[in-house]
Amino acid sequence: MEPSCYSRLTNEWFCAQYLHDRRDEIVDATVQHVQITVVAVLVSVLVAFPLALLARRVPRLEAGILGLSTAVYTIPSLALLPLLVPFTGLTATTVVIGLALYALTILVRSMLEGLRAVPEEVRESATGLGYGPTRRLLRVELPLALPVMMAGLRVATVSTVALTTVGTIVSYGGLGNLISDGVLTNFRAELMTASLLCVALAVVLDLLIVGTQWLLTPWTHGRRAA
Amino acid sequence: MTVLSDTWDYLTSASSWTGEDGMLQLMGQQLLISVTALLLAMLVGLPIALWLGHLGRGGLLAINVSNIGRAVPTFALLALLVVADWPGTRSFGPYGRAGLATIIALTLFALPPIITNANVAVREVSPSVRQAADGMGMTGAQKFWRVELPLASPLVMSGVRLALVQVWATATIAALVAGPGLGRVITDGFYRTNYGKGIAGAVVVAVVALLLEAIAAAVQRALDPVPRSRGTSPKRHRGMSAGAPMVAEEADAVGH
Q1: From the CA of A195, how many Å to the nearest CA of chain B?
Q2: Pairs of residues, one from chain A and one from chain B, whose beta carbons lie less than 8 Å apart
Q3: Where does the protein principally reside (chain B) (predicted)?
Q4: What's the fold here for domain A26-215?
Q5: Domain limits of chain A?
Q6: Which of A15, A166, A202, B209 is in Cβ range 3.0-4.6 Å of B71 for a Cys bridge?
Q7: For residue B94, what pLDDT is reported?
Q8: pLDDT in tens, B9-40
Q9: Which domain holds residue B49?
């Protein structure tokens, strides 16, 4: 029998046989990667939105919130995850919290910026039409702020996909676990496959968000988006 | 919570800091490698970005470089470089095992913030200022050195500052491929279930990162040729145009 393309002797970068033989392992890692990324981004959105509203309402808190988020993004991911371990242990939760913190720094900023970009006149007109603060936020400000917010969400999501790989330090890194193993065992096909899947995942999630945005903002179609 | 007391013990014992592979030596190594990569990235990135900005071009380049930098995991790129025939794990002077691969990866990841900010900074110089320079009879080179560059320099500097943070973070990741630097304390601790050591390493890496950011911010403020005073409309405009790329760049800094 001729040696497969991922045997120690050949160790090729691209190998269909590897995809076939280790399919379950690759699928499991990809699923874990997607789960960690999506949960982290969702948690982050849920926390970022009230924070952005709070920062807008209370200007004194804004500097604090933005300063803290700058401090978080300054800390390297390989250091942030271990710092959470005493509290959450070697679990997927540790990775999700760490990634959510990073995404938070991007999301809070873009949400604030989006809300700020709504012209004062528009806000006043809405009030003049009898919109209360909540209804004005949901019906007028949010739709207008959406493009900037979605741009932030895209950046946050794509970065989170890439960052998830570092979760391998606590053994929950999705495709990062395959990359780790690939380095340890000098296994090129595994390494290349996992790396390409990471990039592909980032592109797919990015396109999904662009599509969602297109559906959510029907008034921008046909015109050049701002 | 014995982990926390183990961490404290590791941080406070002299032997973890001194000697071969002590934290001081590893920190020095990581600083050396970070500065080298930052200088290389500036050497490569700044001339291209500034030149294209002077011509009023490079928008597409800036966007693409950022997007690619964000989507490619640092760890994956480092791993690919280390397992390849070249540069592999060969050590490189004082930079240690996998030093060459680490420097290449670090340089690549420092490029997006440098290129994007420098390019946007020059392109965003207001057209009326350029016209005034033309009207005064300045040549292209004079316009660049005397008008565009001074006006652009705060944003160019903030790109370099973001790159510094980025490079330090990426240098930490090098430990995941058994590369040089302080990250090794973290990976050693975790792979050998000595969590106290791993967390101690993380504390040191995080503190140095915050210090670097603070120092870089202070240097940037000291070097700023255009004193920041708020209230006048042209400067506010500059501030706003600088805002958008900053937001995009944060993400690059997170791409470690």
Answers
A1: 6
A2: 170
A3: membrane
A4: MetI-like fold (1.10.3720)
A5: 26-215
A6: A202
A7: 82
A8: 999 998 899 888 889 999 999 999 999 999 99
A9: 2-254
